[in-house]
Amino acid sequence: MSKKRERITNPEPFLPLGSDAFSAGKKRTKPSKNHQLQEKLVPSAVSSKILKEALLQQKEVQREEDDDGNVTHQNPSLNLVFPQNHGLKEDDDEDDVDDFEGYSENQSQYGELNFEDDLNEEEEKLVEAFLSKTDGPQRTLADIIVEKIKEKDAQVSTGEKPMPKLDNSIIELYKGVGKLLNKYTSGKMPKAFKHVPSLQFWEEVLYLTEPEKWSPNAMYQATRIFASNMGVKKVERFYKFVLLPRVREDIRKNKRLHFALYQSLKKALYKPAAFNKGIVFPLCESRTCTLREAVIVGSIIEKVSIPPLHSSVALLKLAEMEYYGTTSYFIKLLIEKKYALPYRVLDALVAHFMKFYDDSREMPVIWHQSLLAFAQRYKNELTKEDKADLTTLVQRQRHKLVTPEILRELNNSRNRGEKDDDPMSIYILSSSPL
Fold first, then answer.
1. Measured between alpha carbons, how far is 17 from 21 in angstroms, rounded to an integer?
2. One-character DSSP codes across 125-187
3. What's the count of helices (H) and strands (E) in the chain, helices before strands?
4. Which terminus of the chain is less hemmed in, N or C, by CB atoms within 10 Å?
5. Which of 335, 400, 327, 402 lies closest to 127, judged by CA?
6. For the region Disordered, what residue ranges are annotated (predicted)?
7. Under a CB-based contact definition with an 8 Å cutoff, are residues 99 and 260 in contact?
8. Is 0.85 surpassed by the pTM of this model?
């Protein structure tokens, strides 16, 4: 037993200073030190940039920590502590909460979303000539609920089966949720709110929370929840009557879009069909979509990948829709996705442009640019008759810079069904100089 204890308790044998093992260990450490020295040899300019960036990040983190401490001490009501009588308890399991890491709302509330440089006053005036000024305010969820209440009263008066009435406890619960969402900044959403997508009368329950008063961050979290847990029909109504009015109101007031609302639009593209039917189509059909709104919403389409089928359906719908200025901007963005389109969509786009053959108004530059993008991308998929029609169109609707490019694309391209290696495939529509 004593021998075993000695084996366990005795430390490793001491190596004398002159031993080979110690010298070998010392030799092994030298290459690693040399390697570390080589890694540290960076240019002075790069090292200074790294140090400056590190100091800036450290100051930003310290400032955020100080702000958080001041907020919690000065106004404890901003902490999302849900009242127990409402049953608003946090989930036991960890939820994937996206709180815009690396984004400081106090420092740059609208930082990267200012599109004023992309807008031209003359171009805005031309686009506004195609907009309607007679339409009233856009419909919101509140308008839909008021209509349903009136229908309910009419059903009661006629003896029909009325809609079921919500319990007082449910009403109080979701009114309390609405008050919390008005001040929401980060963290988990109330558990009661996560059950809204599974409720039969989800619109009525959502109306109790007053979505028009939600904070931008609460709108983002709600969009995440609904886009993930609702069907296309339901989430389309949420986009159309809740998200879109809020986005347009924010752009109208601030001339730009809040970062969280911009991220909400990006999350909304999780369901492309609902995004087109709930955001893009109502925006164009409203006849009041400004160029600023089109640029901001269009930047989402430009950055995020959309399935080709949904892009084809969107182009077909926009081409057949009544034209109101900013429609050309969305058409141009979808064309520049460079997807292979069915011939039916190409024919609809040709018919869309030919509608302006007899139009006496001066077309905005974005209209000419959308036609140029169409000619550049799909010139080899157009028929001989389509090219002849478009040539006569641009001779009447001319732009001194864009029209020559359109004619060049149409003249120097093959027709639909012809092969690349056929030298006679290039059909010259007009031999006259531009």
1. 9
2. HHHHTTS-S---PPP-HHHHHHHHHHHHHHHHHHTPPPPPPPPHHHHHHHHHHHHHHHT--SS
3. 21, 0
4. N
5. 327
6. 1-41, 59-97
7. no
8. no
